[in-house]
Amino acid sequence: MCFRPSGVVRPVRCPKCGTFNSPNNKSCKKCGYKPEETQKDSADNSAKTSI
After folding, report:
1. Is 31 a domain residue?
2. Cross-referenced InterPro entries, in alphabetical order (predicted)?
């Protein structure tokens, strides 16, 4: 069995291009995709539609 130390974090795969990035990255190192903007936009849109 292989045990990963608790301080080691898994890389995150970009949903747009599939590149593995550090979970600390704000955007994809290859394509520049920013997941925070998409979440903000969808939250803004849902707030607009509920009014």
Report:
1. yes
2. Ribosomal_eL40_sf
Residue 3 has which token pair?
């045990």
pLDDT in tens, the chain (51 residues): 667 677 778 899 999 999 999 999 999 999 999 976 555 555 555 565 655
Residue 28, in any domain of the structure: yes
The total of structural domains in the chain comes to 1
Q: Is 29 helix (H, G, I), strand (E, B) or coil?
A: coil
Euclidean distance between CA atoms 51 and 42, whole angstroms:
15
Q: What is the DSSP letter of 30?
A: T
- Give the integer Cα–Cα distance in Å for 33 and 49: 25
